[in-house]
Every structure is written in structure tokens, then in C-alpha cells.
Amino acid sequence: RELVRALNDHRKELGLAIADRLILSIRATGPINDALLEHREWVAGEVLAAELHIIDPAAPVDALAELVIDGQPVGVHLEVVS
Q1: 17-75, pLDDT tens digit by residue?
Q2: Would you say 45 and 3 are in contact if contact means Cβ atoms under 8 Å apart?
Q3: Global pTM value
Q4: DSSP 23-71
Q5: Which residues contact 66 (CB under 8 A, 6 or more apart)?
Q6: What Cα–Cα distance (Å) separates residue 29 from each residue in 20, 56, 63?
Q7: DSSP code of residue 3
Q8: By the 8 A CB rule, do 78 and 11 touch?
């Protein structure tokens, strides 16, 4: 739930409309990554992600915004679906 709250707060910070459909790319480790893998469809539905891409935690990715969830850094990229 913390992940979904943080993602929706990030949407708001970016000025995205509530109804905007997204392509979400996310990179997390540990328990947050485990929860994301287990609840992928629910997370996508809650943030209106038409696509949800889970990035390998070992992959270097510089173009992600960093959110902190339960003290853990989580990299995200949101793109509005046209």
C-alpha cells in the first residue's frame, strides 16, 4: 500500500491527471520488490498503469526518479499513454 500511495503522490507532483493511463517502470529491491512481484496486477490497477515494467534491481538505470518507501529507495519512471 505504501508503494501505491507513493506512486500516486508522484503522479500528483508531476501534474498528471487522475485519469491518465501510464506506462510504469519501477526498480526496487528486497521486500518492496518481492511485494511488487506478488501484487503486480493490483499495483498496476491502483495507479492506472496500462503497462508495468519491473526493472532488474542489478541493472544500472539513471533516468529514474527516486522515491523512498519504508526507508528503501525505489526508482520509477512514469509515462502517459497517448
Answers
A1: 989 999 999 999 999 999 999 999 999 999 999 999 999 888 777 778 999 998 999 99
A2: no
A3: 0.87
A4: EEEEE--HHHHHHHHHTHHHHHHHTTEEEEEEPPTTS---S-EEEEETT
A5: 73, 74, 75, 76
A6: 27, 9, 17
A7: H
A8: yes
**Which amino acid belongs to residue 76?**
V
In contact, 24 and 74? CB cutoff 8 Å: no
- Placement of cell 491502483 in the chain: 46
DSSP state of 22: E
Take residue 62 and report the three cell numbers written for it.
539513471
Produce one character per residue of 35-45: b if its CB has 16 or more CB atoms within 10 Å, e if not. Answer: bbeeeeeebbe
Q: Cα dihedral angle (60, 35, 40, 27), rounded to 10 degrees?
A: -10
- In terms of residues, how long is the chain? 82
- Amino acid identity at 18: I
